Amino acid sequence: MFAPVLVVLVVTSLGAGCGRKPSNDIPNSPASTEVSDVTHPDSQAMDQVLAELTQTVRKYAMEKQTVPRSLDELVAAGYLRGLPALPAGKTFGISKDLKVHLR
Fold first, then answer.
1. What is the number of H-type helices and E-type strands within the chain?
2. Where exactly are the structural domains of the chain?
3. Rounded to the nearest 10 degrees, how much is the dihedral formed by the CA atoms of 36, 42, 43, 45?
4. Could you tell me if 80 and 33 are in contact, meaning their C-beta atoms sit under 8 angstroms apart?
5. In sequence order, what DSSP letters do the residues of 24-53 get, joined into one string?
6. Which end of the chain has the lower number of beta carbons within 10 A, N or C?
7. Rounded mean pLDDT of 45-70?
8. Alpha carbons 83 and 12: distance in angstroms, whole number
């Protein structure tokens, strides 16, 4: 008696979202992320910026099925509004595990 009820509940919950149409108010283009400027490489704020950039790189890689060569690619694709200021003599790098770091 319990098994048929459970099967019906599982099947109904799985099929509940199948006929839904996408909402028209959700854009197909990626939402741009604005990352704040930081000039001190050891600051907690820079760690936050790198974490936000890492999340954006991973989102891009997942949606595009390709790893970006640089953060400029993310700007061109609309994933970032711009790049934050870098500490003097530093550049952004993207590691094999898709983490953004300073070089």
1. 3, 2
2. 31-102
3. 30
4. yes
5. TTS-SSPPPB-------TTSHHHHHHHHHH
6. N
7. 95
8. 46
Q: Which residue has the tokens 């790049």?
A: 83
Q: Within 13 A of 75's CA, how many CA atoms are on the CB side? A: 9
pTM: 0.62
pLDDT of residue 68: 96
How far from 37 is each of 22, 29, 53, 87, CA to CA, in Å?
A: 35, 24, 12, 10
pLDDT for 70 beyond 70 = yes
CA distance 81 to 96: 24
> Cβ contacts of residue 58 below 8 Å, gap of 6+?
98
Residue with tokens 């934050």: 84
Residue 93 pairs with which residues in a beta bridge? 101
Q: How far apart are CA 81 and CA 83, in angstroms?
A: 7
